[in-house]
Inverse folding.
C-alpha cells in the first residue's frame, strides 16, 4: 500500500509539474504572440512605412527632383489652355492634368522632405524629356483657336512622352511607393496621350 501511495503522490506531483510547465509555456507563447510576433510585425510595417516615405536611393531622389519641375511646366501650360482654349474636351483634360499633377508635386515634395533631401536638382545636365522650350512656349502663348489647341495637344503629348521615359530612372526602384508612383505616371499619361491623339484627329 505504501508503494501505491508513493505512486499516487508521484503521479500527483507529476501532473502538477506538467500543468505548471504547460502553463508557463502557454504564457511564454502568448507573450511572444502579443509582444513578439505582432511587435515584430509592427516593427516590420514601420520599417516598410519608412522605406515608402523616408528611405530613398540616389536614383529615386534624382527622379523626384527632376519630375517636380517637369510636372510644374505641365501645370503651367494646362492653366494656359484653361484660360485660352474654347474646346470643352481640351479644357476638361487640361483641368484633370493640372489638378492631378499638382497633387503629385505635393506628394513628391513630401517624400523628399522625409528623406532629408531638397528639391533643387543640382544636376541640370540631365535631360528632362518633353519639356517645352522657350520658343515653343512663346508660340503657344501667341496662338489662338484651333492653332492653339493643336500646338497644346502636340506639346502636351511630347511632354507626357518625356515623363513616361523618365520613369525608366526608377524601373528598379527599391522603394515600393516610388515604384508604384512611376507606374501610375505611365498608366495615366499613356491614357491621356491616347485621348489627345484622338483629339488631334478630330481637329483635322
Amino acid at each position: 500500500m505504501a508503494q501505491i501511495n508513493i505512486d499516487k503522490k508521484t503521479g500527483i506531483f507529476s501532473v502538477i509539474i506538467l500543468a505548471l510547465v504547460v502553463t508557463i509555456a502557454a504564457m511564454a507563447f502568448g507573450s511572444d504572440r502579443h509582444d513578439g510576433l505582432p511587435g515584430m510585425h509592427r516593427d516590420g510595417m514601420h520599417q516598410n512605412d519608412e522605406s515608402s516615405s523616408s528611405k530613398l536611393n540616389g536614383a529615386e531622389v534624382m527622379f523626384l527632383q527632376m519630375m517636380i519641375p517637369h510636372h510644374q511646366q505641365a501645370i503651367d501650360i494646362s492653366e494656359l489652355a484653361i484660360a485660352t482654349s474654347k474646346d470643352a474636351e481640351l479644357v476638361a483634360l487640361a483641368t484633370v492634368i493640372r489638378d492631378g499633377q499638382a497633387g503629385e508635386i505635393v506628394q513628391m515634395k513630401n517624400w523628399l522632405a522625409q528623406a532629408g533631401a531638397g528639391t533643387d536638382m543640382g544636376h541640370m545636365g540631365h535631360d528632362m524629356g518633353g519639356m517645352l522650350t522657350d520658343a515653343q512656349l512663346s508660340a503657344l502663348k501667341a496662338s489662338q483657336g484651333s492653332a492653339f489647341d493643336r500646338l497644346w495637344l502636340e506639346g502636351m503629348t511630347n511632354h507626357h512622352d518625356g515623363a513616361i521615359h523618365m520613369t525608366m530612372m526608377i524601373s528598379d526602384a527599391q522603394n515600393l511607393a516610388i515604384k508604384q508612383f512611376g507606374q501610375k505616371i505611365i498608366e495615366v499619361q499613356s491614357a491621356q496621350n491616347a485621348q489627345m491623339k484622338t483629339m488631334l484627329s478630330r481637329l483635322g
Summary: Residues 1-53 form one domain. The chain has two domains: 1-53, 57-203. Residues 2-53 form the longest helix (52 residues).
